[in-house]
Design a protein that fits this description.
Length: 679
């Protein structure tokens, strides 16, 4: 029987503050010394303090709710306003963008003149948000969902779907149902789109018989490049310039709905139809989450919410997995480290497949693998791709937007798409290996892809690159990149053996040994710790992957020394930095927060080297830092619990799954015998 584990603290500010206060106790090293040194306030901390000293009009990033229909995503602020939404694709221009500029479009449903709800939760088992409002005169309940329905491309084939059709499909409707459960409440609906990232105004006109329907079009676009938005309700709409409004008093028992749609599929016309669509969306999520294999453990809900976030970040037509739903949410308050993450990174593939297969979510794993295979069949492997497989992702700046809390520039596109990052071949081939291992054979059509990627790794592993962190400084011989080139050759050799290509298997295994020898000679410092790159003794959190990808066994003294050095020297209040910016030429200015993915990697690595108690303590702290809806952005400020960076972040949730499963398995094996590392 597994040992009893204390559940992580509830997701509240007090829990986060307590977690920060307990940093030294929960991150002490194996010999009892405190993890992380006390330092004077950094530029990052000073800028954060300045930002917090004045009341920000922007909600904290971690207080947004995330909705998805696996084709479109949106973020809803605590006050009930949709502040980020792009249609028809997640990487399309925004129609609601208030998260990046308060004038850039919103869609609010809630009590008039009240902005703080009494409670907000996801309905169990899905991405449907339930918000409870208490006013001086009554109580209001609002449900928000991006509608899912039955497969609807029955008369003609879809123009966008490339994966096998399922029983469900997005209906391209944002549905908001409202019920007054007690007393009376003054309801406000305000829908003000701002097309093309607030570069084009909206023009409203009535399109229904009376006041039940209005349509917004882009006033400055006559070529049809911008979507048409239709607002349907059983309330009375008023049109005031660029805004569609509702103001009405609801009494106990009254119900209403507002639906925003952007396709020919019919929106609900009655309350009964709206409730039916809400029910079918709930049924879709319940059926999906039931497929998963989640352990009976106090941390089960974190695994489920991470799985739901990953499902929500998939683009169902192609199987692509977005890194995050947003662009340009800053990694440091007011800083310039603001990037567009609405694309699919190849390096996410290994973690995605491991996490999804571990939880029994094979269909999503297979679809993502099919996307990766598809984009690499006839061309060289890139770092990232558009959600439709696009290869050119030119980066530009939106100078007219002020940015989240004035963090500029606001970027669209991502200039790292054509960087040289040599870890991609290892990520790709590890994904192939994970995908075909259970089948014990390499499909004939896949072998040429395997061979081409292995040969690319052979051709380039000796060269410098820009590394996993996509630095914009000078290329270096990054240790992580060399290790992942070793992964490419190691997995390639195993795949060749499975395919009966013994000569390739022998040749590639020999080159894998050559790469490993080069890393061990040049990538380890004088104290036996893996360095960031060959020209420095600086630490880098990416080297926590060394035991996870089986470059060396966890009991190797260099692995243990590296994991403990990162835990003790590359942390702030016990959470992990990617690297120290003053020691790394990343081509950017300013500080950054702790990277949550790196902290979850540390949990997994600590388990691997046998520090299970310390790993569990760190994992418990990290779970306490989760957003109120159990979501994660890219970074965490340990002193306030605030999240920074794009949100929600797939890589972080993938690392959470890896870390939590590592700890749970270690606890179970601790009861039954010697711990066996997760594959």
């Amino acid at each position: 029987m597994a040992s009893t584990v204390k559940q992580a603290p509830k997701n509240s500010r007090s829990a986060k503050e307590k977690a920060a206060d307990d940093a030294e106790a929960t991150t002490s090293s194996a010999d009892g010394s405190p993890g992380g040194a006390s330092v004077a306030p950094t530029e990052f901390e000073s800028s954060l303090a300045i930002a917090q000293s004045r009341r920000s009009p922007f909600p904290p990033i971690d207080e947004y709710a995330f909705l998805s229909d696996c084709e479109t995503q949106c973020l809803i602020a605590p006050n009930g306003a949709v502040e980020w939404m792009c249609v028809p694709r997640p990487d399309s221009p925004s129609v609601f963008g208030a998260i990046l500029d308060r004038g850039a479009g919103h869609f609010r449903v809630g009590p008039y003149a009240q902005n703080v709800p009494a409670a907000r939760v996801y309905r169990p088992g899905g991405l449907i948000v339930e918000t409870t409002w208490q006013t001086e005169t009554g109580w209001l309940l609002v449900h928000d969902a991006l509608v899912m329905g039955g497969w609807h491309n029955n008369d003609k084939r879809s123009k966008t779907h490339r994966r096998t059709p399922t029983d469900w499909d997005a209906e391209h409707i944002l549905l908001r149902t409202i019920k007054c459960v007690s007393g009376t409440v003054e309801l406000e609906v305000s829908c003000e789109p701002a097309f093309d990232y607030f570069r084009q105004p909206a023009k409203w006109e009535y399109t229904g018989e009376v006041y039940e329907e209005a349509t917004a079009t882009c006033a400055g676009s006559a070529d049809g490049s911008q979507p048409t938005l239709k607002l349907t309700t059983n309330l009375r709409l008023g049109l005031e310039g660029r805004e569609a409004q509702v103001r009405t008093r609801m009494a106990e028992g009254d119900e209403a709905f507002v639906a925003l749609s952007w396709s020919p599929l019919p929106a609900p016309k009655t309350q009964q139809e709206a409730e039916q669509k809400l029910w079918q969306t709930s049924e879709f999520w319940r059926q999906w989450i039931t497929i998963g294999n989640f352990p009976d453990h106090p941390w089960r809900s974190y695994l489920q919410q991470s799985a739901l976030a990953l499902k929500g970040l998939t683009f169902a037509p192609t199987g692509a997995l977005m890194a995050a739903a947003t662009t340009s949410l800053p990694e440091a308050p007011g800083g310039e480290r603001n990037w567009d993450y609405r694309y699919a990174w190849v390096r996410d593939s290994t973690f995605a497949l491991w996490g999804l297969y571990t939880l029994g979510l094979d269909r999503e794993a297979n679809n993502f693998f099919s996307f990766i295979r598809e984009v690499t069949e006839d061309a060289d492997l890139q770092v990232m791709y558009g959600l439709g497989g696009e290869r050119t992702l030119e980066e530009s700046e939106l100078e007219h937007l002020c940015g989240y809390e004035e963090a500029r520039p606001v970027r669209i596109g991502n200039g790292a798409y054509n960087q040289k990052q040599h870890d991609v071949w290892g990520a790709m081939l590890d994904s192939v290996y994970l995908h075909v291992r259970a089948r014990e054979q390499v499909p004939e059509a896949l072998w040429p892809v395997v061979k081409r990627q292995v040969e690319k790794a052979i051709d380039h592993w000796r060269e410098p690159d820009r590394g996993i962190w996509e630095v914009r400084g000078e290329p270096k011989h990054f240790v992580n990149s060399k290790v992942m080139c070793w992964v490419a050759l190691d997995r390639g050799s195993k795949l060749a053996t499975m395919h009966g290509e013994r000569e390739y298997a022998r040749k590639w295994a020999a080159i894998a040994d050559e790469i490993k020898a080069d890393v061990l000679e040049n990538g380890v410092d004088g104290r036996g710790v893996f360095r960031q790159h060959y020209e420095t003794d600086a630490l880098d959190a990416s080297n926590l992957q060394i035991p996870l990808v089986r470059f060396l066994p966890p009991n190797d003294p260099r692995v243990r020394a590296t994991v403990l050095a990162i835990a003790d020297e590359l942390t702030v209040d016990g959470l992990v930095l990617r690297y120290k910016v003053e020691e790394t030429d990343d081509g950017l200015k300013g500080e950054e927060g702790t990277f949550t993915i790196c902290s979850f990697w540390l949990v997994s690595a600590l388990v691997e080297i046998g520090e299970v108690k310390r790993a569990r303590q760190l994992c418990e702290r990290l779970l306490a830092f989760a957003s109120p809806l159990k979501l994660y952005a890219e970074e965490i400020d340990t002193r306030t619990g605030r999240h920074l960076g794009n949100f929600p972040q797939a890589f972080t949730h993938l690392a959470l799954i890896n870390a939590v499963v590592h700890v749970i398995r270690a606890e179970q094996d601790g009861e039954l015998g010697e711990f066996k590392p997760a594959n």
